[in-house]
Specification:
Number of strands: 11
Strand order of the largest sheet: 4-3-8-9-10-7-1-6-5-2-11
Radius of gyration: 15 Å
Number of helices: 4
Strand content: 25-35%
Distance between the termini: 29 Å
Largest sheet: 11 strands, mixed
Length: 179
């Protein structure tokens, strides 16, 4: 457990082919089911303070308490994911900590010297921010707000993984406006 943020709740992998990655994780590793969104509705996205409109595909599944996130960029918008790929890397790009008190945790981390790089929102009370903490590949820290519908979706995804029998390995994202 991190002495700063508690437990790592998510491992974020940047991939070139999200469909192949979901197939590998579900067939070879037995992790699933995957909840897939071909175009995540990200609002208020910023990278180094500049606004952009990313098109990212994301798939989420749990292995026990830890959520695995697969990310494929679909356009050339500046992002930490694009930087990771352009550096010739794929695989684990970030670890995420979840919070119901986003403002307090963000203030605490910035006071500790953490530098924000990338941020946005997925659903109401679903803000996220990535910090400049990649001292070696895979160590970017994400702080993810789970106080709203996104947190309910994460609970649903974890519940679906418990006792998963391999059926329906890929499922659509739930509608956040209905959670």
């Amino acid at each position: 457990m991190s002495r700063f943020l508690g437990e790592i709740r998510q491992l974020g992998y940047v991939v070139h082919d999200i469909e192949a990655a979901m197939d590998y994780w579900s067939t070879t590793l037995g992790v699933g089911p995957w909840f897939y969104n071909p175009k995540v509705p990200i609002k208020n996205y910023r990278y180094h303070g500049q606004a952009h409109e990313p098109h990212n595909s994301v798939a989420l599944a749990n292995s026990g308490y830890v959520q695995v996130e697969l990310i494929q960029t679909r356009n050339d918008v500046p992002s930490m994911y694009r930087d990771f790929l352009q550096a010739g890397r794929t695989g684990l790009q970030h670890v995420a900590y979840w919070t119901a008190d986003y403002d307090a945790d963000l203030a605490r981390l910035t006071a500790q010297g953490f530098k924000p790089v990338m941020s946005g929102e997925v659903g109401e009370r679903g803000r996220f921010i990535y910090f400049d903490t990649e001292y070696h590949p895979g160590t970017v820290i994400e702080l993810s707000e789970v106080a709203g519908p996104k947190g309910k979706m994460f609970d649903l995804i974890r519940s679906a993984s418990e006792g998963w029998d391999g059926s329906e390995p890929v499922r659509p994202f739930p509608d956040l406006s209905k959670l």
